[in-house]
Design brief:
Length: 129
Amino acid sequence: MVDETGNPANGAKPRRGKPRPAMPGLSLQRGLPLLQMLAQLTGTLEIDTSTNCLTVNNGITLVDVAWPPGWTVATRDNEIALIDAAGHTAGKLGDEVYVGGGMVDLARTNVVSCTGRKDVFVATGLSGP
């Protein structure tokens, strides 16, 4: 129980521990892609520490992925997870993912980029290997 200042009630000492890291951001599409894209990006979900954005590491570089509308990042089972528009866990940090879509110049798409890169991989969803 806490008092009106947010401190523990009854004189108990406040809990001290590691500060919780800020939830990473992610790039999002503002609408559905206008083009049919047939590429596949394979890699692991990672955080770009320079921007605190969720990316996919394809083994060469961190790729800025613009996820479909409604996708988000949340904590599931005490781990950072990518959540699809239906509210299901699509993957957690370190998971290998297979993303359908294609690379697009940011200026030619309706995307809000988290990383600020010029090119983003516009995702149409996840698929199997």
